[in-house]
Prior knowledge:
Layout (H helix, E strand, L loop, with lengths): L6 E7 L8 H7 L3 E3 L5 E3 L3 E3 L20 H12 L11 H13 L2 E5 L3 H11 L5 E4 L7 H14 L2 E5 L8 H4 L9 H15 L7 E5 L16 H10 L4 E4 L1 H5 L7 H9 L2 E2 L2 E2 L3 E5 L13 H11 L4 E2 L16
Parallel strand pairs: 1-12, 1-13, 4-5, 5-6, 6-7, 7-8, 8-9, 9-12
Antiparallel strand pairs: 2-3, 10-11
Amino acid sequence: MIERGGEVELIAGPCSITNENTNQILSMAQITVKNLKGKSQLALWGTRVVGLKSRTGFNSEGIGMGIDFGAVMQNIMILSQGNRNQELIVPPSVEVAKTIAQQTGLAICTEIVAPYAQVSVLEREMKNRKMLLWNPAVEQLGWSLIPIAVAAQRNNWDVGIKNGKWLGCHLADAHNPESNEQTDLEKTWTGLASYVQNTGVPLENIAFIHRGVTVPDRENFRNAPVHEVARRTKRTTRGAKLYFDPSHSFGPNMRDHILQGTINALLMTDGNDWLYNGALIEAGDSPTDTNQHITLGELESLAREISRYRNLVTPKQSTNVFCYNAQT
């Protein structure tokens, strides 16, 4: 049993950002907890501000594709015509991110689907802000991570690497702590990290994001969590962080298990240290995947339970402590 303590970064927000759910993020940012010394502090380190979604099927009208769909499509055309990055337009989610970062100091965390059309704008508009940029689970090519990592290295941002959907073995074998055989998932996951490392991003700015795997025997999980695989992956790239994504693991069929499942994961250990450095969780309302979100009240309960055992990391730019009564 390891001693209490050990920093943990909580990231929460809607699956996809809209002008309507932005106020929910501002409310989440005000949730406070008592740290292990009994002092009040803010609970969240970062929030999700995702404006472009990585959908399996393309919708030409932008339905379900995120509020940035039109702007990103324009930026792709601008770049394809040989124009410069300075001519790229600012997508709506970036304006939202600027407001949230200014008012709360939260790290802005977002999925990057079209790196060349998105990252340049973020680098121009979000300079001197803390960010975490991650790849979609459906995009597992290291080359796509390079432009993300280059920008991250220049700006001291974090790079998140989500695991792919496939596992490469039976689920029971993946759960075996005695197994020394590297799964296909681990080979790809650590391979992606090597692309990021090659750009000069420090290990402490790399975060593996575990969102479970799609396997026939996953039962009611949307994507079955394989914590032992995540543990072995973290060990192969020592110094990198590991986050748990409970929303995409438990999904809508096990939504009521998200709260306790996240607590259990964040209290898992690896030798003399904690296994997970943080959690990336969907909370509030969203036009996409709302039925796998927790409420603001549940988010507060989660933060307060974790703070009994571990120190939550607060936004570095924030100096104010708010009072907030969460609503369920």
